[in-house]
Design goal:
- It contains 4 helices and no strands.
- It is an all-alpha fold and 97 residues long.
- It has one domain.
- Helix 2 crosses helix 3.
- The longest helix has 13 residues, at 61-73.
- The radius of gyration is 13 Å and the shape is globular.
- Pfam families: Cdd1.
- This is Mitomycin resistance protein.
- It comes from Luteimonas lutimaris.
- InterPro entries: Cdd1.
Length: 97
């Protein structure tokens, strides 16, 4: 299955780079049904909502995937989810200070 190369090509959540069946289900669990709904969302808030809805503390790498999906839908080029790991670690460290 080919992934979208731009946000405009993403017709369903699974079209977004880095998003597979499990992440599609995670998005649906938090009320995200269409790719366009991700633009403007805070990936950290989405993660916290997912943890609350599922009553599970998910791996922080889920945040990286959420960042990649949100940024892609806001027009960024596709990057592997781990491209955002350092950003997430810095952001969470800043919050803890």
């Amino acid at each position: 299955m080919a992934k979208a190369r731009t946000a405009g090509e993403a017709r369903k959540l699974a079209d977004i780079p880095n998003i597979g069946p499990a992440m599609v289900e995670d998005f649906r669990n938090i009320g995200i049904e269409q790719p366009a709904q991700l633009a403007g969302k805070d990936p950290y808030t989405l993660y916290e909502r997912l943890c609350a809805v599922t009553d599970v503390r998910h791996d922080p790498c889920v945040i990286d995937t959420f960042i990649s999906a949100v940024r892609f839908m806001e027009g960024a080029p596709p990057h592997p989810w781990w491209h955002y790991t350092d950003e997430r670690k810095h952001q969470l460290a800043a919050i803890r200070r």
